[in-house]
């Protein structure tokens, strides 16, 4: 099973829905999609007079921003992606992390990040139920609060949400889609493979910053959770196992390329 995290400009690429629909067919329905929508959230924040703030690639979520996060991620962005996938021939169904408490989160640091959270618990039952029924889950990363009986939501970074969900559903691969062909070195050249130690060094040196730093953190989370293979790449890399950047736990880790039927 492959879990795909969509984000950036690629999310609005007209080639994306047919590519995911083809992958859905090729894998006999073993695909789960998690998506973002940060640009739309930021645009609405500015319209409401609030300048977006990010720390380490993660959004500071004020009360106003949380309203917009729910509106954009679980509403507009989710339904736009579902509609495009259905039109491309994939039986997509849109849900959020709040539905059936699929994803619960705990606050990162309320004083600094507001209503931004980090994954605390995943209930994969709703995802498995949709897959068994022949549907393609399309998931917004807005999460329920950590404690049962506590209403409200947290804004979870889409890469973090995808890593946690991929681990919980037993995905064999997590593919984090980006606007670039993979993780780039200081000379802007794609790195085919990267160990976690090398990834941390790129972040520490500032070569990998912002959203890419958040993606590398998510890769570490997915590998620790048992996901076999983790890659970062663009749309063209989605169905080409050797493309993008494969993140491995250590130098001698085997990187088994996924072979599509």
Could you characterize the architecture of this molecule?
This protein is an alpha/beta fold and 261 residues long. The protein has a single domain (2-248), classed as Carbamate kinase, CATH 3.40.1160. It has helices at 16-26, 38-47, 63-87, 110-113, 125-132, 158-169, 196-205, 210-224; strands at residues 2-6, 31-35, 54-55, 58-59, 92-97, 103-107, 116-122, 136-145, 153-156, 173-177, 193-195, 229-233, 245-248. Strands 1, 2, 5, 6, 7, 8, 9, 10, 11, 12 and 13 form an eleven-stranded mixed β-sheet that branches. A two-stranded antiparallel ribbon has the order 3-4. Strand 3 (54-55) and strand 4 (58-59) form a beta hairpin. The protein is globular, with a radius of gyration of 17 Å. Mean pLDDT is 92; it is low at 256-261.
């Amino acid at each position: 099973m492959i879990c795909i995290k969509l984000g950036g400009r690629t999310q609005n690429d007209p080639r994306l829905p047919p590519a995911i629909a083809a992958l859905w067919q090729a894998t006999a329905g073993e695909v789960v999609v998690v998506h973002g929508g940060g640009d739309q959230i930021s645009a609405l924040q500015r319209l409401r007079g609030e300048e977006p703030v990010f720390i380490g690639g993660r959004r500071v979520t004020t009360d106003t921003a949380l309203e917009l996060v729910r509106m954009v991620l679980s509403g507009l962005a989710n339904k736009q992606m579902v509609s495009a996938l259905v039109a491309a021939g994939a039986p997509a169904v849109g849900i959020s992390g709040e539905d059936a408490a699929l994803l619960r989160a705990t606050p990162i640091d309320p004083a600094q990040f507001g209503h931004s959270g980090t994954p605390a618990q995943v209930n994969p039952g709703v995802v498995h139920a949709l897959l068994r029924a022949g549907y393609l889950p399309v998931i917004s990363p807005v999460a329920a609060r950590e404690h049962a009986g506590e209403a409200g939501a947290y804004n979870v970074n889409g890469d973090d949400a995808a890593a946690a969900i991929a681990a919980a559903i037993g995905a064999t691969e997590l593919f984090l889609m980006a606007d670039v062909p993979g993780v780039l070195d200081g000379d802007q050249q794609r790195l085919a493979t990267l160990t976690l130690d090398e990834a941390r060094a790129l972040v520490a040196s500032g070569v990998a910053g912002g959203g890419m730093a958040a993606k590398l953190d998510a890769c570490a989370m997915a590998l620790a959770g048992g996901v076999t293979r983790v890659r970062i790449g663009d749309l063209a890399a989605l169905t080409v196992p050797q493309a993008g950047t494969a993140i491995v736990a250590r130098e001698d880790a085997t990187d088994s390329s996924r072979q599509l039927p």
